[in-house]
From TrEMBL:
Residues 76-273 form the ABC transmembrane type-1 domain. It is found in: Cell membrane. Signal peptide: none annotated. CDD domains: TM_PBP2 (cd06261). The chain crosses the membrane at residues 16-38, 79-103, 115-135, 141-159, 198-222, 249-272. It comes from Kribbella italica. GO terms for cellular component: plasma membrane. Keywords: Cell membrane, Membrane, Transmembrane, Transmembrane helix, Transport. This is Peptide/nickel transport system permease protein. GO terms for molecular function: dipeptide transmembrane transporter activity. Coiled coil: none annotated. It is a multi-pass membrane protein. The keyword Transmembrane applies. Pfam families: BPD_transp_1, OppC_N.
Length: 283
């Protein structure tokens, strides 16, 4: 409750962050409830193809006569699942490894950091493309794991550096003298001090995973099945959307959805930074 009250107080003083948070909330609601209230059928009606925006279809229709806005809403859920799950895995693994190795040090730190360095040297994008091609799945959970397979390594390195600087601070020495457990030291003493960095990285990890997943569908590497923004762009390109202005809304609507979400996360991250950083907190 303290977190929510602090967040609300900061949002009231930062209109940009408030707008960003409201947009993120709208996307989350669309992901949760959108497929319940909006349905995208398999019917094809050539007479309804590429209709201009109207009250019935606020963003027009695609080549099959289906509403673009309906596809945007229905496609929000799989994209958000991939983005959030990938960010959770990336942040959890990166923060856990970084804090533990930075605090414990010694042989464990050396061995784990050498493994981390191997992941850092692996070219992430080619590996993701190869894995996505071999596994060939549209399961959001599997896609999230693929996208986070190397993303945690850089975060682990950065968190380890902060943990090494924190382990000689007075509050850590005091906690040692009190005999706190390793989980208490990492979770309650060190983690709050890297909170701002972790929170910002979490939001950026979501947008990075969304970009990557859309790219896999756009390039046709992931199976073209179901509804999501990447599949919409892929189908729009395949149906010649670049060669006719009639399909502009169909082509650019999913791109606009991604850009708006990205900007909203950037604005909202200012509020999270203030919540976790006492020096920026609004009194």
């Amino acid at each position: 409750m303290r977190f929510l009250s602090d967040l609300w107080r900061i949002l009231r003083h930062d209109k940009g962050a408030l707008i960003g948070g409201a947009i993120v909330l709208i996307y989350c609601l669309a992901a949760v409830f959108g497929p319940i209230f909006v349905e995208v059928g398999n019917e094809q009606d050539a007479s309804q193809a590429y209709l201009a925006p109207s009250l019935q279809h606020p963003l027009g229709t695609d080549a099959l006569g289906q509403g673009v806005l309906s596809q945007i809403i229905v496609g929000t859920r799989p994209i958000m699942i991939v983005g959030v799950l990938s960010a959770v895995v990336t942040v959890f693994v990166g923060v856990a490894i970084g804090l533990l190795t930075g605090y414990v040090g010694g042989v464990a730190d050396t061995v784990i950091m050498r493994i981390t360095d191997i992941f850092l040297t692996i070219p992430g994008l080619p590996l993701i493309i190869v894995l996505a091609s071999v596994i060939n799945t549209t399961n959001p959970v599997v896609l999230a794991l693929i996208l986070s397979i190397t993303a945690w390594a850089g975060l682990a390195r950065a968190i380890r550096s902060q943990a090494m600087s924190l382990r000689s601070r007075e509050f850590v020495e005091a906690a040692k003298l009190q005999g706190v457990s390793l989980s208490n030291m990492v979770g309650r003493q060190l983690l709050p001090n890297v909170g701002p960095y972790v929170a910002i990285h979490f939001l950026l990890a979501i947008t990075g995973a969304i970009y990557a997943s859309v790219g896999l569908f756009l390039l046709g590497i992931a199976p073209i099945s179901g509804n999501n923004w990447g599949i919409m762009i892929n189908l729009a390109m395949a149906q010649g959307a670049l060669y006719t202005t009639d399909s502009a809304f169909y082509l650019f609507s999913p791109m606009a959805a991604i850009v708006i979400l990205q900007v909203a996360f950037v604005f909202f991250s200012r509020a999270l930074d203030s919540v976790f950083n006492p020096r920026l907190r609004v009194q």
